[in-house]
Design brief:
Elements lengths: L6 H14 L6 H8 L3 H13 L3 E3 L6 E3 L8 H7 L20 H26 L3 H5 L4
Antiparallel strand pairs: 1-2
C-alpha cells in the first residue's frame, strides 16, 4: 500500500524541535534528528516559512516559530507542506467506460465519499495543536 508523503510527519518533527529546542535550531541539527538529508529539511523549512509558521535565517542559520505552539494546528502544518494536490487528498481514476453502469458512475459517487473522508481528517487535524503534541514528549 502506498503511503502519503512523509513531509507531514517531518514537518511536525521539525516544528517540535524548534518549539522545544534551546534558541535557534539549525537545519543540520533537524536533519540529524529526523535522520534525513539536510536538503529535504531545507525544502520543508521553505514550505513552513511560506506558510508563515517559521522564520529562517540564512547564513548564521537557525529557525524560530512565528506563532506560539498552541496556535499551530496539525491542519496548519498539513496544509503548509502541500500534502494534497488540487486540495484533494484522494485521486480517482478517470476515463472509465461510460457504457458500463459502474464506469459511468464511479467517479461521481466515489468523489463524494472521499471528499467527506478528507473533511473528517482535516477536522480532526484542526483539533490538535503542536503544543498538545510536544507536551507528550516529556
Amino acid at each position: 500500500m502506498k503511503q502519503l508523503s512523509t513531509r507531514f510527519s517531518m514537518a511536525i518533527h521539525t516544528l517540535s524541535l524548534i518549539a522545544k529546542g534551546p534558541g535557534d535550531i539549525t537545519g543540520d541539527f533537524i536533519a540529524g534528528s529526523v535522520n534525513t538529508n539536510p536538503v529535504v529539511i531545507r525544502r520543508i523549512m521553505g514550505m513552513l516559512k511560506k506558510a508563515g509558521l517559521v522564520d529562517v535565517r540564512a547564513g548564521v542559520g537557525g529557525a524560530s516559530l512565528l506563532r506560539a505552539p498552541e496556535e499551530i494546528t496539525l491542519l496548519d502544518i498539513y496544509r503548509a507542506v502541500d500534502i494534497v494536490d488540487d486540495n484533494r487528498l484522494f485521486g480517482v481514476h478517470s476515463g472509465s467506460n461510460i457504457n458500463c453502469l459502474v464506469g459511468r458512475n464511479i467517479e461521481q459517487v466515489l468523489q463524494s465519499e472521499l471528499r467527506e473522508a478528507q473533511q473528517a481528517l482535516e477536522q480532526r487535524l484542526a483539533q490538535t495543536t503542536l503544543d498538545q503534541l510536544i507536551t507528550r514528549f516529556d
